Each structure stands twice: as structure tokens, then as C-alpha cells.
């Protein structure tokens, strides 16, 4: 049944975080990797000096599973609290970023094993259990050849719509990583980029969480700028990039700035053959959350400056604390045609496997 | 109207000379092949005097990241301020965006004189 959110629009939610426990990954891991978790207590490396200082840390306080398990860890509760209650047509799973194999600063063999285990767990426990859910291929991108093999292994699954790359301290446009894009393009997978713990203060950490959280879009801007000026979309014309959880209000500025810079400095990047704003319009999409309480006229100005109403796609970021409500986050009284695009059609056009 | 602007021997290939025609600032460019081209001397971006820039070459578009094929030496007019590139052999079109170009002036060469006309 085609879902409808309360405002009677079909809803494709482009950022939902499912959560795995290390215990749940064990059946999907071979030795020796398994014992590094069971015997040696491996956990994902952490970098931020702060916690997420909301009521329940990174999660909505009401999203904890009633039996006490962490938010996002139970399909039934997610169905009840999110998918059924808002009438989702589709939801795209983007991982809990723990473990985040592509963010590891070493031990890439372990990262590769974790990515494979995560993909199998995601397929078994989520994608094959709810027809509305689609997923992201996790990889260890530090080893592009191994990453491409993992994309070959699971990328043709009909419920896998994108390859997930974290936004941390690696810029992914470098030709070293292009085997990943080649494999993604082959399987009609888009690229989804979602921040993990990007250092946003000259490679380090600002003093307070509120500064870091405010400046996350700057890390997204680094990646967009790098991907365009590295010629990724000239080289892979079928590839598209979804920028997840950085919002979109930086896009009008960045498009204008990149165009102006390209006119001045084209000669440094002769592999880029079109105006950057045209490349962005043809190859990128931005998830809406976290919305900045825009008034209708402010949103319409942003869309006007982007030169397209097909570049933004609604996302909730469930179950995280800075969640956006499908019914309340966007300004009221938007035109029906625009709402249809933002809530579902732009995502449907972006992801070939949703058509 | 027409006006003799300069003598051909005044401008070697790959060089420019500023002048005035019809009350407007003009730059006469002599391309690598020895031919002459005349354009407005004001960059369409912010009005920089183009004659203070360079006639040089530029990396041509490539399909390979990291590859620089420097071509057209002497045919690319590079603005002295922001470095925008205009192809004097292609009606002054901007390399980054060929929808933009310099205003071009008609000229002819006779008896060693460079004459602009409209």
C-alpha cells in the first residue's frame, strides 16, 4: 500500500538510522574478527570531546525501545513510531555510523570485515523484513579495491540504493577512490554521504558541541567542492550524490561561489568541463534535515537561488534528537506540486531502484 | 567610421597594445599566427584593463583528472585581475563559460596599418 503522511503526501524518508549492537554482528563475522570483539573488546574509535547533550544523548528520548534497548534497534518499534504513524511509502536506512568502517584510521582489514557483516545484518534484519525499507551499502573505502568487491557482492540487491561514505577527514573525490564510484555506477547505486565526526575547526574540535553541530554543513561543503572539482561527475556521468543530514541552505551560496571561482580558476581543473552549479543541479540532491525553521518565503528564495526545486528531499533523521517531523518541519501552505517533489518525487527520481 | 590604430610592426605575435576607438578603450591583440584581433579593453567581469594582462596559453579540457595539456600559447587573453581566460581566436569567448565573450571590433590591415572600423 502506498503510504501517506498526515498531510496526505507520499513520503520517502531519505535518512533513517537503524542501529546494530556489536553482539548482533558476531554471527556475520568470521574469525579472527569475531574474537577481537568478544575477547578483546574492540569498539569503534571516538574523537569528539563531548557527548550529544540532548535529553537522551544522540537519540530522541521517546525513541528508546520500550524494553530498554537503544533507539533504532528494533524494527517493530520503528514501524510503529515512524513508518506506520507517518505513513511512509519508503525509508532509506543510513546506518548508525557505529561501526563506521570507512571512518577507521587503521586496521582496514577489520573495517572491511565489519562492512560485510553490517550489510548482511542489514539485509536480514531490515531490508528483507519490511518492503518499505531500502538500504545503504557499507564499505571500507580506505581500501578501494576491497570496497569495490563488497559493492560487487551486495550492490545488485534490489533493496540497496546507495553506497555510504562518511564525512570525516577524507575527501572522497581523489582518483584513488574512483574504483568505488565505478562499481557504484555499474550497479545503479548512488553515493550517499553522511557526516560521522568531521573535525570542523581547522582539523580539530571547537570548544562546545553547539559550535560543532552548527558547523557540520561546512564539512559537507568540503565534500561537495572536492567531488565537483575532482571531476568525479565528468568521469562518471551516471553517478549521483545525496548529501545527508547537512541540510541544503548552504547550497545556494556554494553554487554561486563555485561558479565564480570556476570562471577565475578553470585552468587549474581542466577536467571540469561545465559550470559547477550545472553539475550540482544534474548530480546532487540534499536531504532537508536539519531544517532551520524557514518561513515559506525564505524556503522559496533558497529554491529560486538553487535554480531547481528538484534538489531537496525530505528526511527525518529518526531516531536522533534533531529529528524533523514530516508534518511540522517545513513551512505551512507550500504548493502541492512542490510538496510532492520534496516529500517523494525528488527522491524517487534520484534513486533508480525506487522507480 | 574607421581609424588607423597602429602599425603592424608595433605589435609582435603574442603581444597586446591598448588604444582608443570611437571614444572607447580597445585592446589590439596579435595572436601566435600573426593575425590581429581587437576587443574592448574592459573585462566584462569588473572592468579590469585587459591589456595589462597576458596573452598566454591554457590547459585545454581533458577527460583525465590530473592531466594538464597546455595549448594555444599566445592566443588566450588572461585578465590581469581575476585571471579569466578569453580565446582571441574564438571571438573572445570565455573558456569557463562560452556564453560570455568580449565585445569584438572589426579591423583590416592595409599597407602595414591596422585599421578599426564600424
UniProtKB/TrEMBL annotation, chain B:
Gene3D superfamilies with a match to the protein in the record: Rieske [2Fe-2S] iron-sulphur domain
Family assignment from sequence similarity: Belongs to the bacterial ring-hydroxylating dioxygenase ferredoxin component family.
InterPro entries associated with the record: Rieske_2Fe-2S (IPR017941), Rieske_2Fe-2S_sf (IPR036922)
Protein name as it appears in the record: Nitrite reductase/ring-hydroxylating ferredoxin subunit
Pfam families: Rieske (PF00355)
Names of required cofactors: [2Fe-2S] cluster
Keyword Metal-binding: yes
CDD domains attached to this UniProt entry: Rieske
UniProtKB keywords: 2Fe-2S, Iron, Iron-sulfur, Metal-binding
Ranges for domain Rieske: 3-116
Gene Ontology molecular function terms on file: 2 iron, 2 sulfur cluster binding; metal ion binding; monooxygenase activity; oxidoreductase activity, acting on paired donors, with incorporation or reduction of molecular oxygen
Source species, domain of life: Bacteria
